[in-house]
Amino acid sequence: MSEPKPPTPTPGDTYKGWLFKWTNYIKGYQRRWFVLSNGLLSYYRTQAEMGHTCRGTINLATANIAVEDSCNFVISNGGAQTYHLKASSEVERQRWITALELAKAKAVRMQAESDDSGDECPAVPPSSGQGGGCRNSEVQSTLRTLSSKVEDLTTCNDLIVKHGSALQRSLSELEGIRVGADMGEKIRQVTERATLFRITSNAMINACRDFLSLAQNHSKRWQKALQTERDQRIRLEETLEQLAKQHNHLERAFRGATVLPPSFSNPTLGSKSGVSGKGDASDEDDDNEFFDAMEDPAEFITVPADPKYHRRSGSNVSGLSSETGMDDQSVNFDELSLASNPESPQPLELEPVRQRRTRIPDKPNYYLNLWSIMKNCIGKELSKIPMPVNFNEPLSMLQRLSEDLEYYEILDKAAKCQNSLEQMCYVAAFTVSSYSTTVHRTGKPFNPLLGETFELDRLRECGYRSLCEQVSHHPPAAAHHAISEKGWTLRQEIALASKFRGKYLSIMPLGSIQCLFDKSNNHYSWKKVTTTVHNIIVGKLWIDQSGEIDVVNHKTGDRCHLKFAPYSYFSRDVPRKVTGVVTDKDGKAHYVLSGTWDEKMEFSRIMQSSKGENGTEGKQRTVYQTLKAKEIWRKNPLPEGAETMYYFSSLALTLNEPEDGVAPTDSRRRPDQRLMEDGRWDEANAEKQRLEEKQRTARREREREAVKAASSPEEGAHPENYQALWFEKIDDPESGETLHVYKGGYWEAKEQGSWDMCPDIF
C-alpha cells in the first residue's frame, strides 16, 4: 500500500513501465522496459536502450489482448508476434490492460481514417488548400480529434462498467464469508478491485477533461466562423439578386432595341454582327462575348437570313427550291400557314356545353416537418414510401397525364399540315407545352390504385376525349389514350422511377408517347425528360426540367432533337430554355425551334446553313440563316388566385369536378382525394391508409389464386400479370416498342351505364 502510485493511463498519452516478458524455457520471464506510444508497443532491455536499440515492436491495431490470470496477459497479432507478459501485481497488470485497450481503439480509428482519406485526397490538388480549403481542413481535423476523445470516453465507460461489476461481486462475496482465514484474502481482492475501479475512473475523468477543454477552445472559433459564413451568404444572395435584376433590365433593353425575335439570345446574335451568312463577326462584338460566356455552349447559332429571301417573288422561288432542297409548296407554307391557321378550333367559351368550375377550396396551411419523414427515404423509390396527403395535390397521376391535352389545339393544327416537316414543328411544340403546368406544381399527385381509371370527355367542347387506366402497381404504370375528331390519336404508357437524393428529388419517366395522324398516316414517338424537385429539405421548392428528347416520324424518318437546358443561377442564358432542330431523313436541317418550357415556343425556317467558329469546348458550331421567328405556342395565364389553389391551371381545376355517369373506378370517386380537396386532411390521411391496405389485401388474394392456378394442370399466371380492363399490351410494329393500347368498350359501357366488370377498388 505504501509503494509510489504509478501514473494513471490517459487516452492518447505515452505509457511506460517494467514488465516481465517470457523469453524461453531456460531463462523464463525476463524484466524488460516497455513503451506504449502511437498504437505501438515496444520493449527494451533497459531504459538506456531507448535511444538506440529497440528489441521488438507490435502494432496494436491488428493485435489481440488476452488476460490469462491475475498477473499474466498475452498480446498477439495473429501468429507472427506473440508477447507473453507478466506484471508485478494484478493492479499493475490492469493498468497496462487499460492503457493497451485505449491505445488499440485509437489505432484502429486512425487506420480507418487514413484509409478513408487515402480514397478521397488524391483527387484534390495540394494547391486547393487555400482560403475555405484551409478552414475546412482545420474543422475536419478538430472533428476527428473530438471524435477520438468520444471514442476514448466510450472505452473508459466500458472499462468502468466491467470493473464496477467485478467490485460489486467482490463486495457481495465479502458479506457472505466467515470471519477467519478467508477474511484477509477477500479484503485484499476487494482492495485491488477498488483500486482498479479508481484507476479507470481517473482515466475517464482525464478523458472528459480533455474533451471539455478541446470543446471550449474551439467553440468560440466555430461561432465566429459560422457568423462569417452567414454574413458571406447574405452578401452573396444580395449580390445575386442585384445581378439578376441588372440582367433582366439589360435583356429588356436589348430586346427593345432590336427588330429580331425578342425572347431569346440565339436569334438576336446577328442584329449587330451583320447578315453575311458566315457568322464570323468582329472579336470586339459584345454579342460574341455573350455567347462565349455560356456554360453549356449551344450546338448551333441562328442569324437572320439574307433579305433576298424575304423579298422573293414567284420567279425566284424555284431557284430557292433548288438551293435549299425544298419544294415550292413547302416554302409557301412557311410564309402562309405556319404559326396561324384560320380553321383552328374555336375557344371553349363560344360553345358552352357545360359550365365548368373555376375554383376549388383553398389549400389549408398545415405545418408538417418534412425532414422527419424524408430522412429515412434517401435513395429509395418514392412510389414505395407511404406519404401523408400533406405532400400531395388533390389530383391523381392519371389526371396529371390528362393535363398533357391542355394545348390540344396544337395537334389540331398539326393534323391540317400538308408537309411532314411542318407537322413535326407542331408536334415538337406540343411535347414542350406539356411541361408548362409543372413550373409551380410542387405537390405530388396521388399514386393511382391498380385498376383506377380517369376519363376526360371534351368531345363536344374541344373535339376530343381521353381515357387513362393504371395497368400496373409495381412498377407503377399508367396507359393513356386520346382521340380527336380533328384526325389525331395520342397514346402513351408512362412508368415513373423516382429517387430521393437528400437535397433534391429526381423523377425519371419511363415509357414512350405516340401520336398518329389519320390523314397523313404519320406516326410520331418520343419520351419525356427528367423532372427535378430542388430544395426538398431547406428553402423554397422549385422544379426544373432537363434532358433531351428525340421526336421521330417513323413513316418519313424526320426527326426533331429538343434540348432542355438545366437551370443555373450563374448562366447568362434564358432560364428554362428549350432549343431544337428539325431534320429530314438525310440529316438536313429545315427548322429551328427555340423558347422556354414555361412560357412559349417559336420556330424559324432555315434558308441556309454553314459552319461557324469553334465554341468554348473546341466543337465547331453550325450557323443557321433563318427567316423571322414565329410563335407556335404560348402558355395560358393561370386563373386568378391560383397560388391558393395549388397553382392549378384552368383545365386542372375541372379535372376532379364530380360528374355523373363515370366509371366507379374513376379518380373523381376516390374518397381520400376528395377529402383532401375539401380541406379535411386528417380524414384524408386515414382514408388513404384504408385504401392502401385494401389494395395490399387484394394483391395477396391474387397471389394466392396464382399459386393455386400454378399448382393445377392448367397454366397459371404470375400475380403481377394483372389484366387491364380497357387496355391490352401489344408490340407496335412502327416504333418497335411494347405498350398498352386502348382495346375499346369503355365509351360503349358508359352509354349503356353497364359497369359490372369494374373492380371494387374504393
UniProtKB/TrEMBL annotation:
<feature type="domain" description="PH">
    <location>
        <begin position="12"/>
        <end position="105"/>
    </location>
</feature>
<dbReference type="InterPro" id="IPR011993">
    <property type="entry name" value="PH-like_dom_sf"/>
</dbReference>
<dbReference type="InterPro" id="IPR000648">
    <property type="entry name" value="Oxysterol-bd"/>
</dbReference>
<protein>
    <recommendedName>
        <fullName>Oxysterol-binding protein</fullName>
    </recommendedName>
</protein>
<comment type="similarity">
    <text>Belongs to the OSBP family.</text>
</comment>
<dbReference type="GO" id="GO:0005886">
    <property type="term" value="C:plasma membrane"/>
</dbReference>
<dbReference type="Pfam" id="PF01237">
    <property type="entry name" value="Oxysterol_BP"/>
</dbReference>
<keyword id="KW-0813">Transport</keyword>
<dbReference type="GO" id="GO:0032934">
    <property type="term" value="F:sterol binding"/>
</dbReference>
<dbReference type="Pfam" id="PF00169">
    <property type="entry name" value="PH"/>
</dbReference>
<feature type="region of interest" description="Disordered">
    <location>
        <begin position="301"/>
        <end position="328"/>
    </location>
</feature>
<feature type="compositionally biased region" description="Polar residues">
    <location>
        <begin position="263"/>
        <end position="274"/>
    </location>
</feature>
<feature type="compositionally biased region" description="Polar residues">
    <location>
        <begin position="314"/>
        <end position="328"/>
    </location>
</feature>
<dbReference type="GO" id="GO:0005829">
    <property type="term" value="C:cytosol"/>
</dbReference>
<dbReference type="InterPro" id="IPR018494">
    <property type="entry name" value="Oxysterol-bd_CS"/>
</dbReference>
<keyword id="KW-0472">Membrane</keyword>
<dbReference type="InterPro" id="IPR037239">
    <property type="entry name" value="OSBP_sf"/>
</dbReference>
<feature type="region of interest" description="Disordered">
    <location>
        <begin position="657"/>
        <end position="720"/>
    </location>
</feature>
<dbReference type="InterPro" id="IPR001849">
    <property type="entry name" value="PH_domain"/>
</dbReference>
<dbReference type="GO" id="GO:0097038">
    <property type="term" value="C:perinuclear endoplasmic reticulum"/>
</dbReference>
<feature type="region of interest" description="Disordered">
    <location>
        <begin position="259"/>
        <end position="289"/>
    </location>
</feature>
<feature type="coiled-coil region">
    <location>
        <begin position="226"/>
        <end position="253"/>
    </location>
</feature>
<feature type="compositionally biased region" description="Basic and acidic residues">
    <location>
        <begin position="666"/>
        <end position="707"/>
    </location>
</feature>
<feature type="region of interest" description="Disordered">
    <location>
        <begin position="111"/>
        <end position="138"/>
    </location>
</feature>
<keyword id="KW-0175">Coiled coil</keyword>
<keyword id="KW-0597">Phosphoprotein</keyword>
<dbReference type="GO" id="GO:0006869">
    <property type="term" value="P:lipid transport"/>
</dbReference>
<keyword id="KW-0446">Lipid-binding</keyword>
<keyword id="KW-0445">Lipid transport</keyword>
